[in-house]
Each structure stands twice: as C-alpha cells, then as structure tokens.
Write a structure and sequence with these properties.
By secondary structure, this protein is mainly alpha-helical. It has 3 helices and 2 strands, in the order αβααβ. Helix 1 runs antiparallel to helix 2. The longest helix is centred in the N-terminal third of the chain and has 17 residues. The radius of gyration is 13 Å and the shape is flat.
Length: about 80
C-alpha cells in the first residue's frame, strides 16, 4: 500500500521516464535501468526506503563498475 508521498515520487519517476529520459541516448549498464529500479523500489518499500535504495544504486553506477543484473531486493537491506 503506497501513501501520498510514495505516489508523488512514483509520478515524478514516471514523468522523468516519459519527458526527460527520451532526450538522451540509452547508456545504462544495469538491468533494470536506474529509473525502473527506483520505481520498483518505491513501489515495494515506500518513498524513504525506496529512494535510499535508488540513491545507492546510482552511487554504484561509476565508470569502472561492470554493471549487469541488479534486481531490487525482496526484503529491505542496505
């Protein structure tokens, strides 16, 4: 069950995916993409925990990382 803040975050992510993301070429080295990951994390864990996981995911995306499959965990853990 998502609350008001979670819905606002989900709508913001969906707006980003529809309006901003198409302006740039695809370059994500992870599956799912960072915006998909953030959307799933917020839906699964709520705004605070979901955004925390999304932020940590963005911090893992650096030039020397290998990328690959990085699914949202079933249970919240850092």
């Amino acid at each position: 069950m998502t609350g008001y803040v979670s819905n606002a975050v989900i709508n913001a992510i969906r707006w980003y995916r529809k309006s901003v993301s198409p302006l740039f070429p695809p370059r994500c080295k992870y599956l799912p993409t960072c915006s998909e990951y953030a959307l799933l994390a917020v839906q699964r864990f709520g705004a605070i925990r979901g955004l925390t996981l999304a932020f940590l995911r963005l911090m893992r995306c650096r030039p020397w990382s290998d990328g690959g499959i990085d699914d949202v965990p079933q249970r919240f853990s850092l």
